[in-house]
From TrEMBL:
Listed name of the protein: Rrf2 family transcriptional regulator
Organism in which the protein naturally occurs: Gryllotalpicola protaetiae
Gene Ontology molecular function: any one: DNA-binding transcription factor activity
One GO CC term on file: cytosol
C-alpha cells in the first residue's frame, strides 16, 4: 500500500526503481520484488526494465482502490471469518438475538 501511495506522488512522470523503493521503506529488496510482481500482475503497477526503468502506477491513483491492492497481495480469500462472537463471547446472546448483522 505504501509503495502505491509513493508512486502516486510521482503522477506517473518517471518510474521508481525497486531498489529506491526498498531503501525508502527499509525493506529487503527480494521481499519487495515479490510484492511488486503481484501488484504488476494485478494491473495495479506497470514496470519498465533496464536503465531508467522501475515501477509506476498502471492507471490513475483515483482509479485504484485499497481493496484492489490488498487483494493483489493477499489473494481473494476472506480476510475475516465470522465466528459469531456475540453468541460465544462473555455475554453469550441467544441465536434469536443475533438475527441482524
Amino acid at each position: 500500500m505504501h509503495c502505491c501511495w509513493l508512486l502516486a506522488q510521482t503522477n506517473g512522470e518517471k518510474p521508481l526503481p525497486r531498489r529506491s523503493l526498498a531503501e525508502f521503506f527499509e525493506l529487503p529488496e527480494p521481499y519487495l520484488a515479490k510484492v511488486l510482481k503481484q501488484l504488476t500482475a494485478a494491473g495495479i503497477l506497470s514496470s519498465t526494465a533496464g536503465v531508467g526503468g522501475g515501477y509506476r502506477l498502471a492507471r490513475p491513483a483515483a482509479k485504484i482502490t485499497a481493496l484492489e491492492v490488498v487483494r493483489a497481495v493477499n489473494g481473494e480469500a476472506a480476510i475475516f471469518h465470522c465466528a459469531e462472537i456475540r453468541q460465544n463471547g462473555p455475554v453469550g446472546l441467544s441465536p434469536g438475538q443475533c438475527t441482524q448483522p
